[in-house]
TrEMBL record:
Short name of any one Pfam family annotated for the protein: Peptidase_M1_N
Entry's family note: Belongs to the peptidase M1 family.
EC class of the enzyme, as a word: hydrolase
Signal peptide range in chain numbering: 1-19
EC number: 3.4.11.2
Residues of the Aminopeptidase N-like N-terminal domain: 73-243
Protein name, per record: Aminopeptidase N
Reaction catalyzed: Release of an N-terminal amino acid, Xaa-|-Yaa- from a peptide, amide or arylamide. Xaa is preferably Ala, but may be most amino acids including Pro (slow action). When a terminal hydrophobic residue is followed by a prolyl residue, the two may be released as an intact Xaa-Pro dipeptide
Molecular functions per Gene Ontology: aminopeptidase activity
Ranges for domain Peptidase M1 membrane alanine aminopeptidase: 282-477
Length: 485
């Protein structure tokens, strides 16, 4: 997520310029069905979605969202949006691995009108109460099931638990002209499909969206064929729910090639976002710089969609950038640096995802450090200048918000998890030197690709790969109420 304005406002001027697809295998009709399937249900080969297997845990910061009782392997979403009636009609097919025996399934879901629910082809009862869809059917640990939920209704958002100056309601947002957009960190995917809405449960996705003539639907993943007003996207790398996106509007499309020929797509609204197109076209340059630091871009495609927001989000393979900040040349330059920040998240946050929201610093510290290193190289300011800025800002943020390793539930993604975590990485960089530090960063991304990680696993990785004990340094910078010496 874009660095909050309360932090960027404190940056010294010199630091700111303004902040081939592999298809998922088709299910086999001849393989044996899971034991929990009904006798009339078609056989399903759940091995087709094993890349979406996770080990979900209950989130300590937002325990009301998500569950550790199930592991969604794959979401198949078929959506129809009517800009005139403002009604979303959906069919969500979830391939689920229960993690323990249970009398029912429970998922996060906004209270849409539920039209039909089946489990392994058999009709079951599904009820939505207090933003939870409960399916009254027993399941058995490690015996996968297929849940299909058909629904319709008018989208609603959910409050963001933060005091950021750019904080907006989360989830699927309807625009004045009947379009859609969504940003949903730390949660909000449940406002448009039934979801295990927490970071530890990543899954594969197939998203298909039908819109009227003249409208375009943009989603996370690799773009597929679009025909007859239906747009298709597929994610063959696992995706956390907060990293999915959906935008519907009267979009114009620009295509480009990134490093090593990676296909890039930029979506903008003509007459509204035109001044941002040249900045989006810097994407190959940004990606090339990031690859030199952190290794190959981790996905098979990339892109940017501009929406009617004041924020930005590192949604996987299709970054969602708010266009509301584009009213001056200086702010547009800052928008470009924010875009580099979101691209950095494709390595840190998307490819390697935190297991829970206590470790948001593991995303934002890396992306913020990348952002400031790029700005430093571009503007030529000194290491001493960067160090001075980090120490001064770190002290203010710890005093106001506390340490980055102990975030508060009502202060999501505020400045401490950005700059204070960046300051820790800066100290690690200085202790190791550039060559060893960036080799460590590249190894972290390469070896942990498509996994969920924690503070403990990061510390263990650093110590093992450097042959030194950095436990004290890392913990001090993550837990100290004041800036460590």
């Amino acid at each position: 997520m874009r660095r909050p304005l309360l932090v960027t406002a404190a940056l010294p001027a010199v630091l700111l310029a303004g902040c081939t697809d592999t298809p998922t295998p088709a299910p086999s009709s001849s393989a044996a069905a899971g034991p929990s399937a009904s006798a009339s249900a078609p056989a399903v080969d759940y091995a087709a979605w094993q890349a979406g297997r996770s080990t979900p845990v209950a989130d300590p910061i937002y325990p009301a969202r998500g569950t550790d009782a199930l592991d969604v392997l794959h979401y198949g979403l078929t959506l129809d949006w009517s800009p005139t009636s403002r009604v979303l009609t959906g069919s969500a097919t979830l391939h689920i691995r229960p993690t323990r025996d249970a009398a029912q399934l429970s998922l996060d879901f906004m209270p849409y009108q539920v039209d039909a629910v089946t489990l392994d082809g058999a009709p079951v009862t599904g009820a939505v109460r207090q933003e939870k869809l409960t399916v009254a059917a027993p399941v058995t640990a490690d015996r996968p099931v297929t849940l299909v939920v058909k629904y319709h209704g008018k989208p609603r958002t959910t409050p963001m638990p933060s005091h950021r100056s750019d904080a907006e309601h989360l989830g699927l947002t309807v625009t004045k002209d009947g379009g859609l957009w969504t940003m949903q960190e730390p949660f909000g995917a449940f406002t448009w499909y039934p979801a295990n809405d927490q970071p530890s449960d990543e899954a594969l996705y197939d998203i298909e969206v039908r819109v009227p003539a003249g409208w375009t639907a943009v989603a996370s993943g690799v773009p597929g064929e679009d025909s007859g007003g239906t747009f298709r996207y597929r994610s063959t790398d696992p995706v956390a729910t907060y990293l999915t996106t959906l935008a519907v509007g009267r979009y114009q499309k620009v295509t480009a090639a990134g490093p090593r020929g990676i296909p890039l797509t930029y979506w903008y609204r003509k007459g509204t976002d035109d001044r941002l197109v040249p900045i989006m076209k810097r994407s190959p340059k940004y990606l090339a710089w990031l690859e030199k630091k952190f290794g190959p871009y981790p996905f098979s495609s990339g892109g940017v969609v501009v929406v009617d927001s004041a924020s930005g989000m590192e949604t996987q393979q299709m970054i969602t950038m708010g266009g509301k900040v584009a009213n001056s040349a200086k702010r547009r330059e800052g928008w470009g640096i924010d875009l580099l920040h979101e691209y950095a998240h494709q390595w840190f946050g998307d490819s390697v995802t935190p297991t829970n929201w206590r470790d948001l610093w593991l995303n934002e510290g890396w992306a913020t450090y990348a952002q400031d290193l790029y700005t430093q190289e571009t503007n030529g300011f000194s290491d001493a200048s960067l160090d001075r800025y980090l120490r001064e800002t770190d002290g203010r943020l710890r005093k106001k918000l506390g340490p980055p390793g102990k975030p508060k539930a009502d202060q999501f993604a505020e400045g401490n998890v950005y700059v204070c975590a960046e300051a820790m990485l800066r100290q690690l960089n200085k202790a190791l030197g550039d060559q060893k530090f960036f080799a460590l960063a590249r190894a972290w991304v390469a070896e942990q690709r498509n996994t969920q990680q924690t503070r403990a696993s990061f510390i263990a990785f650093v110590n093992k790969n450097t042959g030194r004990n950095f436990t004290g340094l890392i913990n001090a910078w993550l837990d100290s109420p004041t800036t460590p010496k």
